[in-house]
Design brief:
The chain has no helices and 11 strands. By secondary structure, the protein is mainly β. The strands form 2 sheets. Strands 2, 4, 5, 6, 9, 10 and 11 form a 7-stranded mixed β-sheet that branches. Strands 1-3-8-7 form a 4-stranded antiparallel β-sheet, with no helix packed on it. The mean pLDDT is 97. It is globular and about 40 Å long.
């Protein structure tokens, strides 16, 4: 059973930055894809960013140019650098890892953007 542990959430003001990290219990290159979803209160789950085994990244339109996903194979981590945060970025952020059709999930980390 793969374990994913997120860290780095918190409370920030609009315009500030946060960096989320997701630590995997195994070699991240075993996964076809890793990334981040988020769920805001009252909203459906939204795919935020992904990185595949080849290093190709994709972003939701709402975060493109502000958020950046990266990985560290030596540490088996995937990070989400979030810049110029907005109140609408407030959500619980979940890390995921996908192998074919099977998903593993982290427990989620709260990000709150408020003045």
């Amino acid at each position: 059973q793969v374990q994913l542990v997120e860290s780095g959430g918190g409370l920030v003001q609009p315009g500030e930055s946060l960096r989320l990290s997701c630590a995997a219990s195994t070699n991240i290159f075993m996964f076809n894809e890793m990334g981040w979803y988020r769920r805001a209160p009252g909203n459906e789950r939204e795919l935020v960013a992904t990185i595949n085994v080849g290093g190709v990244t994709n972003y939701a339109g709402s975060v493109e140019g502000r958020f950046y996903i990266s990985r560290d194979g030596a540490e088996n981590t995937v990070a989400l650098q979030m810049n110029t945060l907005k109140p609408e970025d407030t959500a619980i952020y979940y890390c995921f890892a996908r192998t074919l059709g099977r998903y593993s999930w982290g427990q989620g980390t709260q990000v709150t953007v408020s003045s």
